[in-house]
Amino acid sequence: MNTEERQMDYLSILHRETALALGCTEPAAAALAAAYAAKALAEPVSEAQVSVSQYILKNGMNVGIPGTSMSGLAIACAMGLESRMPEKELMVLSGLSEKQKQEAKELVEKKKIRILLCETEEKIYIKVKVRSAAHTACAILAGNHKNLVLLERDGEILYQKECAAAQGGHKEQGQEPYEITLKDIVRFVQEISAEKLVFLKEILRVNEEIAKEGISGAYGLKVGKNLLSGGKNGLIGADVANYAAAMTAAAADARMSGCSLPVMSAAGSGNQGLTATVPIAAAGKKLGIAEEKILKAAALSILLTVHTKHYLGRLSVLCGCSISAAMGAGCGILFMLDGTYEQMCQTVSTLVADISGVVCDGAKPGCALKIATAVDSAVRAANMALNGDGADSRDGIVCQDVEETLENLGLLGNAGMAEANPLILQMMLQKQNG
């Protein structure tokens, strides 16, 4: 493969793995499935049954839904039913009228939407069955957040395709072109012209916008606001690490609490998109980095996030923001400071030694805490690497080869944590059910 072909492959990944999304990705996907089903029904929905995988239930249970004061999958699905616009994809929660929002709330209040846990091998699985007075319809998304695999009306198949995602292992199979390495990614960003990365400016702008909203507003735990105020009163250092962590956490504060601003997601997650890009923009601004280098750093960060998720899976028991996107952010910041490939490997090793055990216990306002920790760790790991320091093969699951380290991380997050996800979900359901 020549240089131009390789660059086209990586540009294709960047385009494919970034998407505009409103609200948390799992509820947005549930709303999308509901919109498909309602559009196929073509009549007012009297009731809906929504069956989801463990991961969708866990990530949709407690997160705020944009345009409402409510949380959870039921209101998200109700809004999807009212929207009937699946062509909006993960922006399906946008543009609803006040009347539509009220009708969605009434569906939930009248308990017309049932959320059920489905036993499935798929990490991402959403089945929405809707009924009117005389007809039924069904839509299934599986494998990824936008992947429609079945659409039916009155038992007649309107659309069907095989779900190719194999979610049971520690790698997602059949998802080309994912056979890449960190070395390949670094070579790509070194060789690519910044002019070919100008589309990333919009990603940085959108995610910076919600970060500013999180700082100015009063969302969630106000992690970002507290980090900035800590820098002013001397309790926390007013440095690049704190500023990057504050801005990224503020974006998550807003997003997890139902802010109506969209985000640009990465590797299927809005919070991963924020963690992979906001620290790059924030550090670049504070350090006075040229725009073309910021764009290249953002590309590196997103691609490394995607690459790490290749090992962990689209959804994981381990927190993708704290681990995958933090690696991207750390190496992206290192790139802006003229760090070498070897130093990036060291940054990845240090982050695996530091925060590889952070679990995902669902999407909720507290995600901002983990994101703040992740960004702080990313900057610290990058700084250590610049000084020639970092974790090595004596440190737990870290190996001498960076790809072997990522392989171990994937094994830990899948086979090693197989019993953790149902246990976490059980704890969350026990709280909810009293």
Automatic annotation (TrEMBL):
Pfam families: SDH_alpha. GO terms for molecular function: L-cysteine desulfhydrase activity. Keywords: Lyase. Residues 88-425 form the Serine dehydratase-like alpha subunit domain. It comes from the Bacteria. One of its GO terms (biological process) is L-cysteine catabolic process to pyruvate. PANTHER family: UPF0597 PROTEIN YHAM. Belongs to the UPF0597 family. This is UPF0597 protein H9753_14140.
